Amino acid sequence: MSVEGKTAVVTGAATGIGRATAELLAERGARVVAVGLQPEHLQETVAGIVSSGGAAIAVDADLSDTRAAGMVAAATREAFGGADVLVNNAAIYPIGPWHEANAAEWDAVFATNVRAYFLLAQALRPQMIERGGGSIVNVASVTFFWGEVELLSYVASKGAVVGFTRSLAREAGPEGIRVNAVAPGAFPTAATAIHADQDKLWRDVLAAQSIKRRGEVSDVARAIAFFAGDDSRFVTGQTLLVDGGWMRN
């Protein structure tokens, strides 16, 4: 497998896409540092990996805290000697009319959804360079490509993730670090659970998709795994939509 023997840091690994990604990378031979809140669920992720014969540790961290990136880097080095892969997946997504939001909410979204991605990449950069290079995979969102109502701060943050991916790929490439992004469509996660009318949500999603089934978090995990491993060794600066043919990028 193209990630066998590598160490992967996966944020938001307690549930959803992050958990599916952590489990898939471990299944394919990577050692996993599962990062996030919800310590009970985070431990479940790690316990499942270990019981299946994999290697993983949990790092309970609030990534909106600027000190968290250093803590994650230190734990990764102590447990596995350093990181080869960073999957920036953790995000928050307050919903509501844009004119009712405030500066504190906006700042909180960008602290987790953008600043933490930057700080983690920066903190793990020396380890990746020491190990001959690495891969950073950032999770954006299909909502950036049309602009979703009542998710202004979230959509704006995901647009920032796309720009961050493109620019960092330019700077990190000469150091052997690739940077790509995936933009998931609608999947059964906490991010879609916030919608009040679930029946309408999924009817609309299936009507818009070219593939007429509900996406599974493992579909996104497989795309992330492609960017994480050596199969994509000559690909950087790209954003891949994983949305069942919803948008045309």
Number of strands: 7
Question: Helix segment count?
Answer: 8
Spans of at least 5 consecutive residues whose pLDDT stays below 50 are none
Mean pLDDT: 93
Largest sheet: 7 strands, parallel
Shape: globular
Structural class: alpha/beta
CATH level-two architecture: 3-Layer(aba) Sandwich
Strand residue content: 15-25%
**For this structure, what is the CATH homologous superfamily?**
NAD(P)-binding Rossmann-like Domain
Helicity level? 40-55%
Give, in order, the helices and strands: EHEHEHEHEHEHHHE
Give me the Rg, rounded.
17 Å
* Largest sheet, spatial ordering of strands: 3-2-1-4-5-6-7
The CATH topology label is Rossmann fold
Rounded to the nearest angstrom, the distance between the terminal CA atoms is: 29 Å
CATH class division: Alpha Beta
Q: How many structural domains are formed by the residues?
A: 1
Protein name: Glucose 1-dehydrogenase
Family: Belongs to the short-chain dehydrogenases/reductases (SDR) family.
EC number: 1.1.1.47
Keywords: Oxidoreductase
Characterise this structure.
The protein has one domain: Rossmann fold, CATH 3.40.50.720. α1 (16-27) crosses α8 (217-228), α3 (68-80) runs parallel beside α4 and α4 packs parallel to α5 (152-172). Strands 3-2-1-4-5-6-7 form a 7-stranded parallel beta sheet, sandwiched between helices. It is globular, with a radius of gyration of 17 Å. The longest helix has 28 residues, at 103-130. The chain is built from 8 helices and 7 strands; from the N terminus they run βαβαβαβαβαβαααβ. The chain is α/β, with parallel strands linked by helices and 249 residues long.
